[in-house]
Design a protein that fits this description.
Elements: H1 2-28, E1 57-61, E2 65-66, E3 71-78, E4 88-94, E5 109-111, E6 119-124, E7 127-134, E8 142-148, E9 154-166, E10 169-175, E11 180-183, E12 195-198
Parallel strand pairs: 2-11
Antiparallel strand pairs: 1-3, 1-12, 3-8, 4-7, 4-9, 5-8, 6-7, 9-10, 9-11
């Protein structure tokens, strides 16, 4: 009987420890980057839905027409740097039909060497380098990085972004308003002029009771 009781206590203690760790993570988020499972719904796991206000961040691309294996320079910039700094993000570029596990499609890859130490790549849907996320939760006013187009001769892609101000304030799965065109007859180099669009696509608000320390 003593051994049975000890085994039951051990199982209960393991379950309680796992539960506490899970709650701690849900409260504090992911300070070292979004997990790969977040790629499917582009949701940071802070709540069921994101804010429905206009995003205070701009996403800038130096071009939207590119040849396969060529690069697009991307910037994420706060329009209110004194009050709305970024603490977390998840970026993915994919074909409109891709995103389910049974229809991977082509994603292209992000170049980790083109960004600062604040960012890192992750494998969305098992595709290495197809996602980009933060590597720490320090507040940032601007980030820049490069996306390498896949070897398509004619295809359209969408840029999806989840941008986090803090645990209670985030904009989930917002879509860049222009498609990225990968084509064999696209210009080889950029004009050098950034095509600027403010992301305004939002979801619904969510009420969060717990006020945590970290985001994502």
């Amino acid at each position: 009987m003593d051994k049975i009781h000890l085994n039951m206590c051990s199982v209960a203690l393991s379950f309680l420890t796992a539960l506490l760790l899970s709650n701690f993570q849900s409260i504090n988020g992911y300070p070292d980057g979004a997990p790969e499972r977040a790629c499917e719904k582009m949701n940071p796991g802070h709540g069921e839905q994101s804010l429905n206000s206009n995003s205070p961040y701009e996403i800038k691309l130096d071009r939207v027409f590119v040849r396969g294996a060529n690069r697009i320079k991307i910037q994420v910039v706060s329009t209110k740097p004194s009050t709305h700094k970024l603490t977390g993000l998840l970026i993915m570029v994919k074909k409109p039909a891709a995103g389910k596990r049974e229809t991977f499609g082509a994603f292209g890859t992000f170049d980790p060497k083109s960004s600062s130490d604040d960012l890192k790549t992750i494998s969305c849907f098992g595709m290495p380098g197809s996602g980009l996320t933060h590597s720490d939760n320090k507040a940032k006013t601007a980030l820049s990085f490069e996306w390498i187009a896949p070897n398509d001769t004619s295809a359209e892609y969408e840029l999806h972004a989840t941008l986090v101000r803090d645990y209670n304030s985030f904009w989930s799965d917002i879509v860049y308003p222009q498609k990225i065109h990968v084509s064999s007859d696209a210009p080889v180099s950029s004009s050098g002029i950034l095509e600027t669009n403010t992301i305004t696509l939002c979801i619904l608000t969510v009420a969060v009771v717990v006020v945590p320390l970290f985001s994502f």
